[in-house]
Fold:
Amino acid sequence: MKKVLIIREGALGDLVLTFPVFYNFKKNGFKVFIAGKGIYKGLVEKIGYADNFIPIDSYEYLFLFENDNKKLKNFFQEFDIIVAYINEEEILGINIKKFFKGKVFFHPIEKEKLNIHITDYLLQPLTDIFNQSIINSVSFSLKRKGEFFVIHPGSGSKNKNWPKEKFLELIENLKNVKLILGPAEQDEVEFWRKNFKGEIFFNIDIDNILKIAEKTTTYIGNDSGFTHLFSFLGVKTIAIFGPTSPFIWGPRGENVKIVYKKIECSPCKNEKMKNCKYKYCLEQIKVEDIVALL
Structure:
């Protein structure tokens, strides 16, 4: 059986958007090895699209970024193909070119140059590997019980977040709501504890996220990793987009609805997004726009 190593660094959403890549290799009979951030090992193992997960940020794999000839040769000789979503001039890329003798596909992601959906971009190397059609959207079916709403009011960047006050107004229109807060919301935990009287899940592990998703009727969130994860898990998802383009970064799935009010200056480039004072693209989204989709 052929073995592929897929190198995909990045946050939770980056990983979830790459699941179709893992799936297509698995579907075509490959033994799939994923190299990514160690905190996502449990998730990848639960989903089952990989045979092995390599925590590339752990001490154990520090040699990948060094000049240990023996370890590098022994490691890379295990694989037939490498798909690396990194720049080949990085240290890891240089080591791959030097010590890997099989076929390698470097496919770095320059976010501001993308003009197609990110998953379609990530799948491009596979068209050179397989002769059959590529599946560009996958999902994972949970046994859902539908007990409560889940809201994640944050994201990896505060510039992408719908105003907290609007989330609070939305919550007043719903019954039985629970909040998820991730590491990026560390400095907002006290705000939510003060203003939200329901249950708050803060910085929970992947097993508990899956258990929560099983009981979620509808998930509502910004352009974030949790939004991509819940949509992938088949939960009805309402994704709120402002400065980023849903046509490039939006979650895919039959149960996904995207709220987006495109204005003259959107979508934003990163620098512009960081310096924007008014966030009109998010301010124009009303609570009624969300309620209408429930």
Remarks:
- The longest strand covers residues 216-222.
- Residues 47 and 113 are 30 Å apart (CA to CA).
